[in-house]
Every structure is written in structure tokens, then in C-alpha cells.
Amino acid sequence: MTHATFVFDNSYARDLDGFYVSWQGDVAPAPRLLKLNRALALELGIDPDGLSDEQAARLFSGSQMPEGAAPLAQAYAGHQFGGFSPQLGDGRALLIGEVIDRNGHRRDIHLKGSGRTPFSRGGDGKATIGPVLREYIIGEAMHALGIPTTRALAAVATGEQVLRDTILPGAVLARVASSHIRVGTFQFFAARSEVGRLRQLTSYTIARHDPDLLENGDITGTAVLGFLSRVIERQAKLVAQWMLTGFIHGVMNTDNMTVSGETIDYGPCAFMEAYDPRTVFSSIDTHGRYAFGNQPAIAQWNLARLAEALLPLIDDNEAAAIERATEAINGFPVRFEAAWAAGMRAKMGLESAEDGDATLGAELLSCLQAREQSPALDYTLAFRRLAAVAGGLADHPGPTGEDGARFKAFTQAYKARLDRDAMPAERRITAMLAVNPLYIPRNHEVEEALAAAVAGDLAPFNRLLDVLSDPFTERAGLEAFAAPAPADFGPYRTFCGT
Fold this sequence. Notes:
Layout: H1 11-15, E1 20-22, E2 32-36, H2 38-43, H3 53-61, E3 72-74, E4 78-80, E5 83-85, E6 93-100, E7 106-112, E8 127-128, H4 129-144, E9 151-163, E10 167-177, H5 183-191, H6 195-209, H7 221-245, E11 247-248, E12 270-271, H8 295-314, H9 318-330, H10 332-347, H11 357-369, H12 379-390, H13 405-419, H14 425-435, H15 443-454, H16 459-468
Antiparallel strand pairs: 1-3, 2-9, 4-5, 6-7, 7-10, 8-10, 9-10, 11-12
Helix pairs in contact: 4-15, 4-16, 5-8, 6-8, 7-8, 7-9, 7-10, 8-9, 11-13, 12-14, 15-16
């Protein structure tokens, strides 16, 4: 059964008093619906046909709170580029409430860009159309790629002009997540030595995300350690998926890492085209801390900060707590490498597992990067070409004319490995094309769509969303969306949107 309005069950507001500030969004002067994610609305139990565009614009801009909402700004801290800020919090966002979706899952509905809060730290609390639609595009693309992510429910233009480097049209994003609880949420209370509230938060979070760890409704040190292990596992798998698709988050601060294992906060993010582990697109990442190849190590570093926050709950004996938490954190590389190897095996069309598979995949990446007198090869297209190699339709995964000795050696080793795998050739090609996307949010296409949208033309944005909704199936007429950026595009830089 669907409803024209939300049916809220706001557990965060109900159970965690003192962990947030109740707040209202600003009233937008002239809210206008830019995009409603009808499929997601239905998933949440909302009939999109029961909302007029005018109603949706008011609701999803924060101008009018739906019945049953409990809007609040969440408190959290965070390490930003390695430096600790003891108080960050939702400076331009509101959690308006939680719903139980049609599959029985609890989902947050969250507004981004709805105005100042007590955590705004001097900012204006606003967002603009470009960054809002960027998050819409990237989040929906990640979802279509099968990568855990927050999702866009709606984008609304506010009718307000927002000052950045220039005057830009304002907007609000309504997004959905299984929760917005971050590593930084735990750091906030740990930094204040508020162990009681830290325990309350941890108990709530385990009950919400890992209820099987609870013993008679209470948490023990073993449950907390188990929770830490679950978060490590989720993040290891998530970052492995990022690496396998060439995604660069751009700002992996601890306040941008969820304990649910969902990708969150698409600010200076981008997809890598030419393969190079040193790739950085973010304008603020001047030292490459969050470069593509650094993401696994940064994830482990962030998780170590979560472990530090949880130490008082793991064991009353600090030395014992440190030992147990360190053992868990040290297990991250093994978990990440296992997830990456499994994903790479699928990308290479291998059904069976051999010890050398990860090495073979790493050698392919080295081939893509190490070329004499030529730029690195396109990461996404190389794996589509690899399917042609597996099917006997190409001699190597490089472009036409690529005949380097290293590519030849890789291809020889790859074909020998295929000979030892039991998967039939026809099924292998189908399986490879099902996991290796052809269409990703290529940076030049994203920028063209956003520029048009800011100028008032949403057609390129809607077209790009449609292309990215089915990233694996080749479709006639979409050749331009599968092509790398033209030579005159770049150097490319992204910005956080604040």
C-alpha cells in the first residue's frame, strides 16, 4: 500500500535525546521541483502521483515539514584531512525523519542545503543547483552499479540566489540512507569523554544495523568488538567496489564515513578515466591524501579512529581493549584484498579461484598505467575490451595498435588462466559484460549536464540519468556516453560545493 505522505517512525529523535538539535529548515522563497525519484519514492511507500510538483517542492526544500516529521541537526565530530575537529555536525542539513520502506528496512530522509543550523560554523547552510544535481547523478549511478550508497529522492530549486565564487541558484537535495551515523558521530562523544552517551549511541546503532550482536537487548564488550568488525567488513567491501569501478571519493574524512557501509557526501568526487593510482580531482586535496590509490589505507586509518572511540566499551582494561581493537583493525587489509580479488576475478571472467588471480589483475592495471610515450589507458573501457579478449575477438585489452611487450605477456598469462577455468566461453563473456560497466558518469558529461541545468535546461541531466540507470548494457546511439573525455577537456578539478 502506498501513501501520498510519509509514515514516520523517528527512532533517532525518540531514542537519542541530546545527540542532536531540533531545528527547522529555511522557507524557500520560490521552491520548484527539479527532479523526483519516482522509483525510490515508491520503494519508500510513497505514491509519487499523490504529490503535486508544488507539494513536493515545499516538502523537499524544507519549507514545509510533512506531518510526523521530527527535523533535527545531528551532532558529530571528525578528522578532516588528518586534523581533528571536535564539533562539526549538520551545518546545512536536516534529518527530517525515518520511514520503514516496503521491504521492511528503516531509511533516513535527509535534506541537504536547507539552511543554517547551530552547527553551521559560519557557513550559510545553503547548496546550489550544480552540487545538488551532481550528488543526484553520482548517487544514482553508484546505485545502478551495485555500490552501497545514499540515494537522491528529490532535487528542488529554492528560488534563492547563493553566493559562492559568484552568484548561483540555490537548491536542496532530499536524500535517503539506511542511516546517517558516521565514524565522526562516535568521535563527538568520545572526545568529550561522555562514555554514557557513547554507550547509548553504540547500543542504538547496533540495534539498528547489527541487532543479532545484542545479548538480551544490552551490549557487551564482545558485541561492541563485533560491531567494529562488521563496520570494518562493510567498509572493506565498499572501498574495494570503489577501486574496481575507478571511483574517487575525494574527501574521505571520518565525518564522511558511515557505519552502515554506504557511500555518502558526493562533493569533490569523480570517476577516473586514464588509469593512474595517483589521480586526484579535488581542488582542496593539494597533497593527494585522498588520491585513488590511497583510499584503502585511508579507510583503515578512519576505522582506527572509530576503534579508538569505542575503546571504553570494548574492555574496562585499556590495554586489553587496545589489543583487541588493534587486532580487528589490522584485519582490514586482508578483508579488503579478499573483496578486491573476488571483484577483480569477476571482472576478468574467472569462475574458479587461484592464488595468482590478484597478481594477474594487478599486472593488468600496471599495463594500463605503464606505457611509453603514451597516456594511461581508459580504466573502464579496458575491461570491456578484456571481454573481447576472453571471447577471442581481440588480441589484447589495449586499443587498436597497442602491441607493447608487457601487454603481450599479460595477455598470454590471461589466456592460459582462462584455459584452467571451467566457465564456458559464451557464459564468460555475458558474465564479464554484466559486471564491467560501459557507461559511467564521465566527468565531461557530468559537467555539461550540470552547466545546462544551472542555465535552466534539465534535458541533458535527465538524459545522463537515463543512460547511467543501465550502465552495463550497450545501447545504440549512446556511443558518446562511453567515450573518454576529449583531449581539450581538463585538467579537471572538482569542488566540495560549500
